[in-house]
Amino acid sequence: MKDKNKERVVAKKRGVMSRLRAYFLAGVLVTAPLGLTALLSWWFIDFVDEKITPLIPDRYNPETYLPFGIPGLGLLVLLIAVTLIGALTAGLIGRWLLQTGERVLNRMPVVRSIYSAIKQIFETVLAQQSNAFREAVLVEYPRRGIWAIGFITGTTKGEVQNLTEEETVNIFLPTTPNPTSGFLLFVPKSDVVPLGMSVEEAVKMVISGGIVTPPDRRSKKEQNISRVSSRTFEHLEVLREKYPSPILINKNGKKI
Predict the structure, then answer these.
(1) What is the pLDDT of residues 207-251, one digit of tens each?
(2) Residue 140 pairs with which residues in a beta bridge?
(3) Strand pairing category for 193-194 and 182-188
(4) Helix, strand, coil % over all residues of the chain, rounded to 5
(5) Pairing of the two strands 248-249 and 136-140
């Protein structure tokens, strides 16, 4: 009888500890994302304030007359300044000043290359009609049978496309867990497998290292159809250059 009572007490203690552990993990899942988001936002605002606020003249700086600082003042001033510059460049005088400044920069050997590259990137990403980073795809990298998530940044043009027999697309292959760095690949359009998940979902999957996996929203019929393979064969070759689907053959050239 005493043994049974002891077992009940131990089981009850274990049940309480399990519930407390579950409550703690639930609290971490709720507070950690909020805390990290607030911390990163505060660091960014504080960084901008430290750089912009000292540039404000004392007579126009409200912190000169107030006994306390105003968080986000530098960020607000930066947003207003950028908006005013955008409005200025929309006019005739603003466009003339911009063109004059660009002509001066184009005469500087090193600066002109940096400015031109940065400007082209921003124009491509921020353009309203741009399709950059708007589609997530699967590509075979770094070898056949291994697949990675990439993002289409555009259609290959210029010398790279002229030297390539197949029609290729520009693929940005991000690294994990930092998606801001990665590789630029020129992949044949026929070898690219489009994904149904959104770009945001694909980025989350890359950052989490596959821990966060978005659900497959395709129909049951589409889910049951395999489109790629992760298996490789030592004595077989995969003909993907002439056929839309993989065809396995042996060394004698006979289909299997």
Answers:
(1) 888 888 888 888 888 888 888 877 765 544 555 555 555 545 555
(2) 147
(3) unpaired
(4) 50, 15, 35
(5) unpaired
